[in-house]
Amino acid sequence: MKKKITLIGAGNIGGTLAHLLLIKKLGDIVLIDVMQGMPQGKALDLSQSSAVEGFSNTIQGSNDFSKMKNSDVVIITAGLPRKPGMSRDDLLEINGKIIKKIGLDIKKYCPKAFVICITNPLDAMVYVLQKYSKLPSSKCVGMAGILDSSRMKFFLSEALKVSINDIQTFVLGGHGDDMVPMVNHTTVGGIRLLDFIKNKKIPMSKINKILDRTRMGGGEIVKLLQRGSAFYAPASSAIQIAEAYLLDQKKLLPCAAYLNGQYGLKKMYMGVPVIIGSNGVEEIIEVKLDANEKKMLRTSVKSVQGLVKAVDKILN
């Protein structure tokens, strides 16, 4: 039996998600948006590519949120996108109210779904989503770390002139300017990045520029596009989580997951390495941090806690 995947938000990310899901044949899709005609138009357009792409999965567009009923997976992109000059935090009030409503709808229509949130500010939004949907924390995650890690891998592959497939790294912490790129845990073809720096294959000054560019990766694209934000890479990153869940891949991925003691943190969402399988978040992996990484993580934690406190005040 085909899985049912609901995409809430039919903008650039939602449309790209739908396209990728159909090509990968991961399930039948419902595309929901408040804008009349947009989800229906994109669904019809994508349906007309089925003969070319060779998929038989269905896609329907709707403005009716009850159409998410009995979904196996829900991916949420709904909300106001960033515009030039805006931080992710500027979106807090508007998107917080949108995500609260969606959380209540999930509780009503598909309380057993596995839910992936992409809406910014990410860590605060996935907290709101889990709070109002009442989903088990293992079934509600935020997509951020995969995207940030992918950006870092790309920048490193360019600088080192090596295949991006040889680079393994991840980003810890909140999805914002205080994220913590894990240089100490980065390898290139199994060789530590620190050895490349030590052997003067690349200067630390260049690595620091890459880390800053990773932190500002979304803002760089917003500035270039002027009328939108990143959508191809965020969509691909969310698909990787959905695929790991639907196919029980037991894949180790950096996601915004609910912490209850891990990394010394409790009752909050934060980007950490997790294993995703058919039960959702099956394990949270703790990595050893040096003094500087701990300090950076504390800064990131404070930023996320500030956002959560603010959004709770707005919504309560």
Structure description:
With 316 residues, the chain is of the alpha/beta class. It is 44% helix and 20% strand. The chain has 11 helices and 14 strands. The chain has a 6-stranded parallel sheet. The protein is globular, with a radius of gyration of 19 Å. The model has no long low-confidence stretch (mean pLDDT 96).
Number of strands: 14
Helix percentage range: 40-55%
**Helical/strand content category:** alpha/beta
Strand order within the widest sheet? 3-2-1-4-5-6
Q: In angstroms, what is the radius of gyration?
A: 19 Å
Number of helices: 11
Low-confidence stretches: none
The major beta sheet can be summarized as: 6 strands, parallel
Overall average residue pLDDT = 96
The helix-strand sequence is EHEHHEEHEHEHEEEEEHHHHEEEH
Strand content: 15-25%
Shape: globular
Give the terminus-to-terminus CA distance: 40 Å
